[in-house]
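Project outcomes to date are best conveyed with an example. Our students and postdoctoral researchers have been running inverse folding experiments weekly, and each run begins with a structure described purely in C-alpha coordinates. The record below, which covers 479 residues, was selected by the lab manager from last quarter's runs and is presented without edits.
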Protein backbone atom coordinates (compact mmCIF):
# COMPACT_ATOMS: atom_id res chain seq x y z
CA UNK A 1 0.00 0.00 0.00
CA UNK A 2 1.33 3.42 -0.95
CA UNK A 3 2.05 5.93 1.81
CA UNK A 4 0.01 9.13 1.78
CA UNK A 5 3.02 11.14 0.59
CA UNK A 6 3.84 8.68 -2.21
CA UNK A 7 0.23 8.63 -3.44
CA UNK A 8 0.13 12.42 -3.34
CA UNK A 9 3.37 12.67 -5.33
CA UNK A 10 1.97 10.38 -8.01
CA UNK A 11 -1.28 12.34 -8.23
CA UNK A 12 0.68 15.59 -8.56
CA UNK A 13 2.91 14.03 -11.24
CA UNK A 14 -0.11 12.95 -13.29
CA UNK A 15 -1.70 16.39 -12.93
CA UNK A 16 1.54 18.02 -14.10
CA UNK A 17 1.74 15.84 -17.21
CA UNK A 18 -1.87 16.64 -18.10
CA UNK A 19 -1.16 20.34 -17.53
CA UNK A 20 1.83 20.22 -19.89
CA UNK A 21 -0.51 18.74 -22.50
CA UNK A 22 -2.70 21.89 -22.11
CA UNK A 23 -5.20 20.74 -19.48
CA UNK A 24 -5.66 22.91 -16.41
CA UNK A 25 -4.28 21.40 -13.16
CA UNK A 26 -7.14 20.30 -10.86
CA UNK A 27 -7.56 22.63 -7.90
CA UNK A 28 -8.41 19.73 -5.57
CA UNK A 29 -5.01 18.11 -6.16
CA UNK A 30 -2.53 20.90 -6.93
CA UNK A 31 -2.08 23.75 -4.40
CA UNK A 32 -2.92 27.24 -5.69
CA UNK A 33 0.63 28.57 -5.41
CA UNK A 34 1.99 25.61 -7.39
CA UNK A 35 -0.73 25.98 -10.05
CA UNK A 36 0.11 29.66 -10.48
CA UNK A 37 3.83 28.89 -10.71
CA UNK A 38 3.25 26.12 -13.26
CA UNK A 39 1.23 28.54 -15.38
CA UNK A 40 3.96 31.17 -15.23
CA UNK A 41 6.63 28.57 -16.03
CA UNK A 42 4.70 27.21 -18.99
CA UNK A 43 4.02 30.69 -20.32
CA UNK A 44 7.73 31.54 -20.10
CA UNK A 45 8.67 28.37 -22.00
CA UNK A 46 10.78 26.89 -19.19
CA UNK A 47 12.28 23.49 -20.05
CA UNK A 48 11.04 20.42 -18.22
CA UNK A 49 13.97 18.00 -18.58
CA UNK A 50 17.14 20.12 -18.48
CA UNK A 51 18.21 22.83 -16.05
CA UNK A 52 19.60 25.77 -18.02
CA UNK A 53 20.39 28.74 -15.80
CA UNK A 54 22.63 31.82 -16.07
CA UNK A 55 25.92 31.94 -14.20
CA UNK A 56 27.69 34.97 -12.72
CA UNK A 57 30.86 33.95 -10.89
CA UNK A 58 31.78 37.52 -9.97
CA UNK A 59 29.64 38.75 -7.09
CA UNK A 60 30.18 40.48 -3.77
CA UNK A 61 31.15 37.74 -1.33
CA UNK A 62 31.19 40.30 1.49
CA UNK A 63 27.76 41.82 0.90
CA UNK A 64 25.63 42.62 3.93
CA UNK A 65 23.34 39.66 3.15
CA UNK A 66 26.23 37.19 2.85
CA UNK A 67 27.84 38.46 6.06
CA UNK A 68 24.56 38.32 7.97
CA UNK A 69 23.80 34.80 6.73
CA UNK A 70 27.26 33.38 7.49
CA UNK A 71 26.86 32.73 11.26
CA UNK A 72 23.39 31.24 10.72
CA UNK A 73 24.65 28.94 7.96
CA UNK A 74 27.68 27.99 10.07
CA UNK A 75 25.37 26.85 12.86
CA UNK A 76 23.07 24.93 10.51
CA UNK A 77 26.04 23.32 8.77
CA UNK A 78 27.14 21.81 12.09
CA UNK A 79 23.61 20.62 12.85
CA UNK A 80 23.10 19.08 9.39
CA UNK A 81 26.56 17.47 9.10
CA UNK A 82 26.19 13.99 7.61
CA UNK A 83 22.48 14.43 6.84
CA UNK A 84 20.84 14.44 3.42
CA UNK A 85 20.03 18.16 3.57
CA UNK A 86 21.59 21.44 2.56
CA UNK A 87 20.97 25.11 3.30
CA UNK A 88 21.24 27.87 0.71
CA UNK A 89 20.98 31.66 0.71
CA UNK A 90 20.09 33.65 -2.42
CA UNK A 91 19.77 37.35 -3.09
CA UNK A 92 16.44 38.99 -3.94
CA UNK A 93 16.73 37.98 -7.61
CA UNK A 94 17.38 34.31 -6.89
CA UNK A 95 21.17 34.29 -7.37
CA UNK A 96 22.73 31.68 -5.06
CA UNK A 97 25.23 33.37 -2.73
CA UNK A 98 26.12 30.60 -0.26
CA UNK A 99 25.49 26.87 0.11
CA UNK A 100 26.24 24.35 2.86
CA UNK A 101 25.62 20.63 2.16
CA UNK A 102 25.38 17.82 4.70
CA UNK A 103 26.52 14.89 2.53
CA UNK A 104 28.46 14.33 -0.71
CA UNK A 105 25.78 12.54 -2.76
CA UNK A 106 23.37 15.46 -2.41
CA UNK A 107 26.19 17.92 -3.10
CA UNK A 108 26.99 16.14 -6.38
CA UNK A 109 23.34 16.19 -7.43
CA UNK A 110 22.98 19.90 -6.67
CA UNK A 111 26.11 20.59 -8.72
CA UNK A 112 24.58 18.71 -11.67
CA UNK A 113 21.41 20.83 -11.54
CA UNK A 114 23.43 24.03 -10.95
CA UNK A 115 21.96 24.79 -7.53
CA UNK A 116 25.27 26.29 -6.49
CA UNK A 117 26.84 29.70 -5.79
CA UNK A 118 26.90 31.97 -8.83
CA UNK A 119 23.85 30.41 -10.51
CA UNK A 120 20.32 31.83 -10.51
CA UNK A 121 17.34 29.79 -9.33
CA UNK A 122 14.76 32.47 -10.10
CA UNK A 123 11.47 31.06 -11.34
CA UNK A 124 11.94 32.70 -14.74
CA UNK A 125 14.92 30.39 -15.40
CA UNK A 126 14.15 27.15 -13.54
CA UNK A 127 10.39 27.12 -13.27
CA UNK A 128 8.61 26.05 -10.10
CA UNK A 129 11.05 25.60 -7.20
CA UNK A 130 11.15 26.66 -3.57
CA UNK A 131 13.45 29.63 -4.04
CA UNK A 132 11.63 30.92 -7.11
CA UNK A 133 8.12 30.58 -5.68
CA UNK A 134 9.06 32.15 -2.33
CA UNK A 135 10.53 35.18 -4.10
CA UNK A 136 7.58 35.47 -6.50
CA UNK A 137 4.94 35.05 -3.78
CA UNK A 138 6.91 37.07 -1.19
CA UNK A 139 6.20 34.43 1.46
CA UNK A 140 7.58 31.13 2.71
CA UNK A 141 6.81 28.16 0.52
CA UNK A 142 7.47 24.42 0.35
CA UNK A 143 7.79 22.64 -3.02
CA UNK A 144 7.60 18.87 -2.66
CA UNK A 145 9.12 16.45 -5.18
CA UNK A 146 6.84 16.23 -8.20
CA UNK A 147 5.54 19.76 -7.67
CA UNK A 148 8.77 20.98 -9.33
CA UNK A 149 8.23 22.05 -12.93
CA UNK A 150 11.53 20.53 -14.05
CA UNK A 151 11.85 16.74 -13.83
CA UNK A 152 15.53 16.98 -12.82
CA UNK A 153 14.46 18.47 -9.49
CA UNK A 154 11.69 16.03 -8.61
CA UNK A 155 13.81 13.76 -6.42
CA UNK A 156 14.27 16.56 -3.87
CA UNK A 157 11.98 18.74 -1.81
CA UNK A 158 12.75 22.29 -0.79
CA UNK A 159 11.42 24.98 1.50
CA UNK A 160 12.27 28.65 1.20
CA UNK A 161 11.40 31.83 3.05
CA UNK A 162 12.02 35.47 2.10
CA UNK A 163 14.66 37.38 4.04
CA UNK A 164 13.40 40.91 4.65
CA UNK A 165 15.12 44.10 5.64
CA UNK A 166 13.52 44.88 9.01
CA UNK A 167 13.94 48.61 8.46
CA UNK A 168 12.60 49.03 4.92
CA UNK A 169 10.48 45.87 4.65
CA UNK A 170 12.12 45.06 1.31
CA UNK A 171 12.88 41.45 0.42
CA UNK A 172 16.68 41.09 0.41
CA UNK A 173 16.92 37.40 -0.45
CA UNK A 174 15.71 33.91 0.39
CA UNK A 175 16.68 31.18 2.83
CA UNK A 176 16.34 27.68 1.38
CA UNK A 177 16.51 24.15 2.75
CA UNK A 178 16.74 21.28 0.25
CA UNK A 179 16.74 17.54 1.00
CA UNK A 180 16.02 14.23 -0.67
CA UNK A 181 12.34 13.29 -0.72
CA UNK A 182 11.31 11.59 2.51
CA UNK A 183 9.01 11.81 5.53
CA UNK A 184 11.18 14.44 7.26
CA UNK A 185 10.39 16.97 4.54
CA UNK A 186 7.26 18.05 6.41
CA UNK A 187 9.48 19.67 9.06
CA UNK A 188 11.29 21.91 6.59
CA UNK A 189 9.03 24.98 6.69
CA UNK A 190 9.48 25.75 10.39
CA UNK A 191 13.26 25.38 10.23
CA UNK A 192 13.69 27.61 7.19
CA UNK A 193 11.42 30.34 8.60
CA UNK A 194 13.38 30.35 11.85
CA UNK A 195 16.67 30.61 9.95
CA UNK A 196 15.36 33.47 7.80
CA UNK A 197 14.30 35.30 10.96
CA UNK A 198 17.77 34.80 12.46
CA UNK A 199 19.38 36.34 9.36
CA UNK A 200 16.95 39.27 9.49
CA UNK A 201 17.93 39.96 13.10
CA UNK A 202 21.63 39.98 12.21
CA UNK A 203 20.93 42.33 9.30
CA UNK A 204 19.01 44.61 11.63
CA UNK A 205 22.08 44.88 13.84
CA UNK A 206 24.02 45.95 10.74
CA UNK A 207 21.58 48.84 10.23
CA UNK A 208 22.68 52.28 11.35
CA UNK A 209 21.44 53.71 14.63
CA UNK A 210 19.62 56.35 12.56
CA UNK A 211 17.65 53.69 10.65
CA UNK A 212 16.74 51.79 13.81
CA UNK A 213 15.53 54.95 15.53
CA UNK A 214 13.34 55.89 12.56
CA UNK A 215 11.86 52.40 12.29
CA UNK A 216 11.02 52.22 15.99
CA UNK A 217 9.34 55.65 15.93
CA UNK A 218 7.40 54.74 12.78
CA UNK A 219 6.17 51.43 14.22
CA UNK A 220 5.04 53.06 17.46
CA UNK A 221 2.84 55.60 15.66
CA UNK A 222 1.42 53.37 12.91
CA UNK A 223 0.51 50.63 15.38
CA UNK A 224 -2.32 52.69 16.84
CA UNK A 225 -4.07 54.21 13.83
CA UNK A 226 -4.49 54.43 10.08
CA UNK A 227 -3.83 58.15 9.49
CA UNK A 228 -1.14 58.99 6.90
CA UNK A 229 2.32 58.72 8.46
CA UNK A 230 5.68 59.38 6.84
CA UNK A 231 9.17 58.92 8.27
CA UNK A 232 11.95 60.74 6.41
CA UNK A 233 15.67 60.20 6.91
CA UNK A 234 18.74 61.06 4.88
CA UNK A 235 18.61 57.80 2.90
CA UNK A 236 15.38 56.22 4.11
CA UNK A 237 11.66 56.80 3.52
CA UNK A 238 9.01 54.87 5.46
CA UNK A 239 5.32 55.37 4.64
CA UNK A 240 2.19 53.53 5.70
CA UNK A 241 -0.45 52.61 3.11
CA UNK A 242 -2.53 55.75 3.81
CA UNK A 243 0.45 57.98 3.00
CA UNK A 244 1.61 55.90 0.01
CA UNK A 245 -1.78 56.28 -1.66
CA UNK A 246 -1.70 60.10 -1.41
CA UNK A 247 1.94 61.16 -1.79
CA UNK A 248 4.46 61.21 -4.62
CA UNK A 249 8.25 61.25 -4.48
CA UNK A 250 8.16 65.00 -5.12
CA UNK A 251 5.78 65.37 -2.17
CA UNK A 252 8.33 63.56 0.02
CA UNK A 253 10.92 66.16 -0.96
CA UNK A 254 8.58 69.07 -0.21
CA UNK A 255 7.63 67.63 3.18
CA UNK A 256 11.26 66.97 4.07
CA UNK A 257 12.15 70.58 3.25
CA UNK A 258 9.22 71.83 5.32
CA UNK A 259 10.20 69.65 8.27
CA UNK A 260 13.81 70.86 8.09
CA UNK A 261 12.61 74.48 8.17
CA UNK A 262 10.91 73.86 11.51
CA UNK A 263 14.22 72.76 13.06
CA UNK A 264 14.04 73.01 16.85
CA UNK A 265 11.23 75.57 16.80
CA UNK A 266 8.45 74.89 19.30
CA UNK A 267 5.88 75.14 16.49
CA UNK A 268 5.58 71.62 15.14
CA UNK A 269 2.65 72.08 12.75
CA UNK A 270 2.81 73.47 9.26
CA UNK A 271 0.71 73.61 6.10
CA UNK A 272 2.39 72.32 2.95
CA UNK A 273 1.02 72.58 -0.58
CA UNK A 274 1.70 69.34 -2.43
CA UNK A 275 2.52 68.88 -6.11
CA UNK A 276 -1.02 67.85 -7.03
CA UNK A 277 -2.55 70.99 -5.52
CA UNK A 278 -3.64 69.45 -2.21
CA UNK A 279 -2.75 71.10 1.08
CA UNK A 280 -1.49 68.88 3.88
CA UNK A 281 -1.45 69.87 7.52
CA UNK A 282 1.81 68.39 8.79
CA UNK A 283 2.52 67.52 12.40
CA UNK A 284 6.28 67.08 12.69
CA UNK A 285 8.53 65.49 15.29
CA UNK A 286 12.28 65.22 14.96
CA UNK A 287 13.72 61.76 15.66
CA UNK A 288 17.11 61.48 17.31
CA UNK A 289 19.38 58.46 17.63
CA UNK A 290 22.49 57.84 19.68
CA UNK A 291 24.47 59.35 16.79
CA UNK A 292 22.41 62.55 16.54
CA UNK A 293 19.46 63.71 14.42
CA UNK A 294 18.06 60.76 12.43
CA UNK A 295 15.17 62.37 10.57
CA UNK A 296 11.53 63.39 10.93
CA UNK A 297 8.27 61.67 11.77
CA UNK A 298 5.32 63.33 10.00
CA UNK A 299 1.63 62.79 10.73
CA UNK A 300 -0.56 64.26 8.00
CA UNK A 301 -4.10 65.53 7.53
CA UNK A 302 -5.36 66.67 4.14
CA UNK A 303 -7.39 69.79 3.40
CA UNK A 304 -10.17 69.97 0.84
CA UNK A 305 -8.34 70.46 -2.51
CA UNK A 306 -11.35 72.33 -3.96
CA UNK A 307 -10.90 75.25 -1.58
CA UNK A 308 -9.15 78.33 -2.98
CA UNK A 309 -8.07 79.51 0.46
CA UNK A 310 -6.09 77.86 3.18
CA UNK A 311 -7.60 77.39 6.65
CA UNK A 312 -7.84 80.74 8.43
CA UNK A 313 -8.77 82.62 5.25
CA UNK A 314 -5.20 83.12 4.03
CA UNK A 315 -4.91 82.93 0.25
CA UNK A 316 -2.49 80.29 -0.97
CA UNK A 317 0.64 81.72 -2.56
CA UNK A 318 2.04 80.45 -5.81
CA UNK A 319 5.09 78.38 -4.87
CA UNK A 320 8.16 77.55 -6.91
CA UNK A 321 6.61 74.13 -7.53
CA UNK A 322 3.45 75.81 -8.81
CA UNK A 323 5.49 77.94 -11.20
CA UNK A 324 7.26 74.83 -12.44
CA UNK A 325 3.92 73.07 -12.91
CA UNK A 326 2.74 75.92 -15.14
CA UNK A 327 5.35 75.02 -17.75
CA UNK A 328 3.95 72.77 -20.50
CA UNK A 329 4.95 69.11 -20.33
CA UNK A 330 3.95 67.53 -23.65
CA UNK A 331 3.32 63.80 -23.93
CA UNK A 332 2.96 61.84 -27.19
CA UNK A 333 -0.60 62.07 -28.51
CA UNK A 334 -1.91 64.19 -25.64
CA UNK A 335 -2.66 67.87 -25.28
CA UNK A 336 -3.02 69.95 -22.16
CA UNK A 337 -1.50 73.07 -20.61
CA UNK A 338 -3.34 73.24 -17.29
CA UNK A 339 -0.86 73.36 -14.34
CA UNK A 340 -2.51 70.36 -12.69
CA UNK A 341 -2.26 68.41 -15.97
CA UNK A 342 1.40 69.39 -16.35
CA UNK A 343 2.08 68.18 -12.81
CA UNK A 344 0.53 64.75 -13.31
CA UNK A 345 2.21 64.44 -16.73
CA UNK A 346 5.59 65.09 -15.14
CA UNK A 347 4.88 62.58 -12.40
CA UNK A 348 3.78 59.89 -14.88
CA UNK A 349 6.83 60.50 -17.08
CA UNK A 350 9.21 60.24 -14.14
CA UNK A 351 7.55 57.09 -12.82
CA UNK A 352 7.67 55.47 -16.27
CA UNK A 353 11.36 56.29 -16.53
CA UNK A 354 12.19 55.04 -13.02
CA UNK A 355 9.74 52.06 -13.21
CA UNK A 356 7.97 53.33 -10.09
CA UNK A 357 4.50 51.76 -9.61
CA UNK A 358 1.94 54.56 -10.03
CA UNK A 359 -1.72 54.92 -9.08
CA UNK A 360 -3.70 57.38 -11.22
CA UNK A 361 -7.05 58.52 -9.86
CA UNK A 362 -9.58 60.86 -11.41
CA UNK A 363 -13.08 61.07 -12.83
CA UNK A 364 -14.18 58.66 -15.54
CA UNK A 365 -13.08 59.89 -18.97
CA UNK A 366 -10.14 62.02 -17.80
CA UNK A 367 -7.69 59.92 -19.81
CA UNK A 368 -5.89 57.96 -17.10
CA UNK A 369 -5.08 54.99 -19.35
CA UNK A 370 -4.13 57.32 -22.21
CA UNK A 371 -1.74 59.12 -19.88
CA UNK A 372 -0.11 55.81 -18.94
CA UNK A 373 0.26 54.86 -22.62
CA UNK A 374 1.80 58.25 -23.45
CA UNK A 375 4.28 58.08 -20.55
CA UNK A 376 5.20 54.55 -21.63
CA UNK A 377 5.81 55.74 -25.20
CA UNK A 378 8.02 58.56 -23.94
CA UNK A 379 10.49 55.97 -22.59
CA UNK A 380 11.16 54.83 -26.16
CA UNK A 381 9.73 51.34 -25.61
CA UNK A 382 8.51 49.65 -28.79
CA UNK A 383 5.92 47.53 -26.97
CA UNK A 384 2.30 48.46 -26.32
CA UNK A 385 1.07 48.58 -22.71
CA UNK A 386 -1.09 45.66 -21.61
CA UNK A 387 -4.35 46.94 -20.10
CA UNK A 388 -6.28 44.63 -17.77
CA UNK A 389 -9.69 45.73 -16.49
CA UNK A 390 -10.42 44.38 -13.01
CA UNK A 391 -14.14 44.54 -13.84
CA UNK A 392 -13.79 42.35 -16.93
CA UNK A 393 -10.36 40.71 -17.38
CA UNK A 394 -11.62 38.40 -20.13
CA UNK A 395 -10.66 40.80 -22.91
CA UNK A 396 -7.06 41.24 -21.79
CA UNK A 397 -4.40 39.74 -24.06
CA UNK A 398 -3.23 36.33 -22.85
CA UNK A 399 -0.63 33.78 -23.91
CA UNK A 400 -2.96 31.84 -26.16
CA UNK A 401 -6.04 29.61 -26.41
CA UNK A 402 -7.15 27.84 -23.28
CA UNK A 403 -5.87 30.47 -20.88
CA UNK A 404 -7.97 31.09 -17.76
CA UNK A 405 -9.86 34.36 -17.83
CA UNK A 406 -9.79 35.14 -14.11
CA UNK A 407 -8.04 38.32 -13.05
CA UNK A 408 -5.07 36.67 -11.31
CA UNK A 409 -4.20 34.22 -14.14
CA UNK A 410 -4.52 37.03 -16.70
CA UNK A 411 -2.11 39.20 -14.71
CA UNK A 412 0.37 36.35 -14.39
CA UNK A 413 0.12 35.67 -18.13
CA UNK A 414 0.75 39.27 -19.17
CA UNK A 415 4.10 39.94 -20.91
CA UNK A 416 6.64 41.42 -18.51
CA UNK A 417 10.08 42.94 -18.75
CA UNK A 418 12.04 46.21 -18.62
CA UNK A 419 10.30 47.60 -21.73
CA UNK A 420 6.77 46.59 -20.67
CA UNK A 421 3.92 48.41 -18.96
CA UNK A 422 0.99 46.72 -17.22
CA UNK A 423 -2.10 48.87 -16.54
CA UNK A 424 -4.70 47.58 -14.08
CA UNK A 425 -7.89 49.55 -14.63
CA UNK A 426 -10.59 49.96 -11.98
CA UNK A 427 -8.38 48.90 -9.09
CA UNK A 428 -11.32 49.48 -6.75
CA UNK A 429 -13.17 46.61 -8.47
CA UNK A 430 -10.65 43.98 -7.33
CA UNK A 431 -12.56 41.59 -5.01
CA UNK A 432 -11.27 41.67 -1.44
CA UNK A 433 -10.63 37.92 -1.51
CA UNK A 434 -8.39 38.28 -4.58
CA UNK A 435 -6.53 41.35 -3.30
CA UNK A 436 -3.47 39.53 -1.89
CA UNK A 437 -3.07 37.35 -5.01
CA UNK A 438 -3.43 40.38 -7.29
CA UNK A 439 -0.84 42.26 -5.21
CA UNK A 440 1.59 39.35 -5.56
CA UNK A 441 1.03 39.23 -9.32
CA UNK A 442 1.77 42.96 -9.63
CA UNK A 443 4.87 42.65 -7.44
CA UNK A 444 6.13 39.74 -9.56
CA UNK A 445 5.69 41.77 -12.75
CA UNK A 446 7.41 44.78 -11.18
CA UNK A 447 10.32 42.58 -10.09
CA UNK A 448 10.92 41.78 -13.76
CA UNK A 449 11.20 45.48 -14.62
CA UNK A 450 7.59 46.04 -15.71
CA UNK A 451 6.10 49.48 -15.04
CA UNK A 452 2.90 48.98 -13.03
CA UNK A 453 0.05 51.50 -13.33
CA UNK A 454 -3.28 51.34 -11.55
CA UNK A 455 -6.30 53.50 -12.32
CA UNK A 456 -9.55 54.22 -10.48
CA UNK A 457 -12.07 56.99 -9.97
CA UNK A 458 -11.07 57.99 -6.44
CA UNK A 459 -7.88 57.30 -4.43
CA UNK A 460 -9.73 56.22 -1.24
CA UNK A 461 -11.13 53.28 -3.23
CA UNK A 462 -7.85 51.32 -3.25
CA UNK A 463 -8.35 47.91 -1.59
CA UNK A 464 -6.21 47.49 1.53
CA UNK A 465 -4.25 44.57 0.06
CA UNK A 466 -3.19 46.67 -2.94
CA UNK A 467 -2.12 49.89 -1.20
CA UNK A 468 1.52 48.84 -0.97
CA UNK A 469 1.54 47.84 -4.67
CA UNK A 470 1.76 51.50 -5.72
CA UNK A 471 4.69 53.60 -4.53
CA UNK A 472 3.20 56.87 -5.81
CA UNK A 473 -0.23 58.31 -6.56
CA UNK A 474 -1.34 61.23 -8.71
CA UNK A 475 -4.67 62.91 -9.40
CA UNK A 476 -5.66 63.32 -13.07
CA UNK A 477 -7.67 66.57 -13.39
CA UNK A 478 -11.10 66.68 -14.98
CA UNK A 479 -11.22 67.84 -18.58
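After processing, the design step wrote out the following sequence:
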Amino acid sequence: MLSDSTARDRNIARARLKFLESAEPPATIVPEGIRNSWQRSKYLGIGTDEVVVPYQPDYDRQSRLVRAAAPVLDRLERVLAGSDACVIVTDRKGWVRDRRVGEKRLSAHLDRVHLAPGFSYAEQFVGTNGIGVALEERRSYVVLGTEHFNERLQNVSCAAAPIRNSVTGRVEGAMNLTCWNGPERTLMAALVQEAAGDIERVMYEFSSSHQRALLEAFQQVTHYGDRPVLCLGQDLVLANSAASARLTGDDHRLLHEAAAELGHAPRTRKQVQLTGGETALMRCRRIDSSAGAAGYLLELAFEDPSSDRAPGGVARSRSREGQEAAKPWPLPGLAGTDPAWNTVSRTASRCARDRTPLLLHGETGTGKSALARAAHALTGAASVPVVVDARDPRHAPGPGPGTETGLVPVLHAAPTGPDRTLVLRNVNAVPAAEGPAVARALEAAAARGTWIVGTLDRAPGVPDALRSSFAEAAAVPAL
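The two ends are 71 Å apart (CA to CA). Confidence is low (pLDDT under 50) at residues 305-329, 397-403. The training component of this project remains on track.
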